User: Which sequence fits this backbone?
């Protein structure tokens, strides 16, 4: 029986946790909303973006989707707000409270 | 047809394990439990079991390997004593919190120091809060019977917790007694096959075992774990009833000896209960209403059942074969006294530390305990509640 990871948010009560905290089933991290861990999020300013894609590989949580060689909007369901992408952007196209 | 034999406690447990035929048995030797894997290794060499026997480099590794095997989906166990159990300390909690139903054949021995190889309960008492089920035996027969019942309890879907089957070092582990063994096929049928729900080697559903739990989850995880423990007592009773059907031997959470009309009682764990029964038999000949409660299931602790059994007793001596260094007694003393307090019991209670490091306990010693209880009843005062028995003053 595969674990329904979507039910394991921070509001889950003790009865709803899995026995021994086991997670059955593979590839479940995409169903687990880690975005709720953070308070600050990066903002994408599309006008300033040159589509160099330097931000994409540095994201530890693969939260910058790429389609047709162009990056899209942040995946805030999984972004933990680390701010690394802000540092990686040469054009000031990503901003975040507290990160320069 | 049951078969009569004469066996040491270690040999009896090893034979139970041969009959169970577990999947994986990692082991590291330590006195007095060494014989269990030693006998078992001969069963492996003789082709009498299919078990993967792993000689590992330490107890830290034997418990780790047993945990890994259990998480993978195997029925696993190991055996140890004393410092070996202490060296498993970290892994004990991993096994319990991951809800892995593996077994540990523990042969109780004193912890160092001073270094000592003989019996007391300081090793398993140190592990009493690790989340394991703990079951104790008075003699070789009980050690064998408890081992046969172990997996039925720990693998039960409402429980899924590791289980420690304890017996007294040398006193039961090495002393040879008459014993009744079950037929191999009866044990096989009773224990059954192990079919875990989720396990690492399941190709249809890969799993993650032991994931990190931040502050947001840890407390809920521990409460979830406690729920498994709440079901243990009933499962122990159900399994015991079924076991009685194949063996004719009845078991409960604890044994009551001459408790029906007892005015004074002793509560204890392990082999010294046999000595206490002899003392009670002598006292009963003289009309003294003495009784005994021998704990079989210590974790979870049968608090309310015990308080009920002690309801009509005027004075009780709780015997600890381990120091607690609390300045007011040992672990069993603390558990029984809190059970009595919760039940608003009237019994006057004292706690004795006895038998440390293999110190002999004789029938006369236990008669002395009942004499002290008689005095407590007469005076209506428990006096010093933290006492030593058999100590040179």
Assistant:
């Amino acid at each position: 029986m595969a674990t329904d990871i979507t039910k394991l948010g921070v509001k889950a009560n003790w009865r709803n946790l899995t026995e021994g905290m086991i997670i059955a089933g593979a590839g479940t991290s995409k169903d687990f909303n880690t975005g709720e861990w953070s308070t600050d999020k990066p903002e994408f300013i599309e006008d300033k973006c040159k589509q160099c894609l330097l931000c994409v590989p540095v994201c530890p949580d693969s939260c910058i989707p790429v389609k047709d060689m162009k990056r899209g909007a942040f995946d805030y369901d999984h972004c933990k707000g680390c701010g690394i992408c802000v540092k990686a952007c040469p054009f000031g196209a990503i901003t975040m409270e507290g990160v320069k | 047809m049951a078969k009569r034999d004469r066996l040491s406690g270690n040999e009896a447990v090893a034979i139970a394990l041969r009959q169970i035929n577990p999947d994986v048995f990692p082991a590291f030797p330590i006195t007095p439990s060494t014989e269990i894997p030693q006998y078992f290794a001969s069963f492996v060499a003789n082709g009498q079991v299919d078990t993967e026997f792993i000689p590992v480099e330490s107890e830290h590794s034997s418990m780790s390997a047993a945990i890994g095997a259990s998480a993978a989906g195997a029925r696993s166990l190991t055996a140890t004593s004393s410092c070996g159990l202490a060296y498993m300390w970290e892994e004990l909690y991993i096994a319990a919190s991951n809800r892995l139903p593996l077994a540990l054949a523990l042969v109780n021995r004193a912890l160092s120091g001073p270094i000592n190889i003989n019996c007391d309960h300081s090793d398993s008492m140190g592990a009493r809060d690790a989340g394991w089920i703990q079951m104790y035996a008075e003699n070789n027969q009980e050690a064998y019977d408890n081992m046969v019942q172990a997996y039925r309890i720990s693998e039960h879907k409402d429980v899924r917790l590791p289980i420690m089957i304890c017996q007294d070092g040398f006193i039961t582990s090495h002393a040879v007694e008459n014993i009744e063994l079950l037929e191999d096929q009866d044990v096989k049928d009773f224990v059954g096959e192990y079919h875990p729900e989720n396990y690492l080697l399941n190709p249809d559903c890969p799993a993650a075992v032991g994931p990190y739990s931040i502050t947001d989850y840890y407390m809920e995880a521990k409460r979830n774990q406690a729920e498994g423990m709440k079901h243990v007592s009933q499962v122990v009773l159900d399994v015991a009833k079924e076991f009685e059907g194949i063996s004719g031997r009845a078991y409960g959470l604890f044994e009551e000896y001459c408790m029906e009309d007892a005015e004074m009682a002793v509560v204890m764990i392990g082999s010294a209960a046999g000595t206490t029964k002899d003392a009670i038999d002598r006292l009963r000949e003289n009309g003294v209403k003495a009784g005994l409660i021998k704990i079989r299931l210590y974790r979870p602790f049968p608090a309310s059942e015990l308080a009920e059994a002690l309801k009509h007793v005027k004075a009780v001596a709780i015997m600890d074969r381990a120091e607690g260094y609390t300045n007011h007694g040992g672990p069993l003393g603390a558990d029984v006294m809190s059970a009595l307090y919760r039940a608003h019991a009237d019994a006057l209670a004292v706690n004795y530390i006895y038998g440390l490091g293999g110190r002999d306990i004789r029938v006369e010693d236990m008669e002395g305990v009942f004499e002290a209880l008689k005095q407590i009843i007469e005076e209506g005062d428990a006096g010093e509640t933290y006492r030593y028995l058999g100590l040179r003053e």
